[in-house]
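Hi everyone,

Forwarding the result from last night's run.
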Amino acid sequence: PRPRYHYPLDQIWNTLPDDIQLARLRLPPGTYDLKVSLRGRGDNLVQSKTFEDVVIKPGRMTFTAWHAVNY
């Protein structure tokens, strides 16, 4: 028999973040250093991260990801 997995919905929903933000940029091919800034209330800087040497190739999509926790 196949194992069955049961996850109560309240446990799944509790693990989702309160806020998800994303940005989409259209850049010509090349290599970039991308700086991302996380801003809180009143436009205060909370955290920032620089993605170095991000290569954008013609006709391709490029993704970066950053997980930040703001307490």
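The chain has one helix and two strands.

Cheers,
N.
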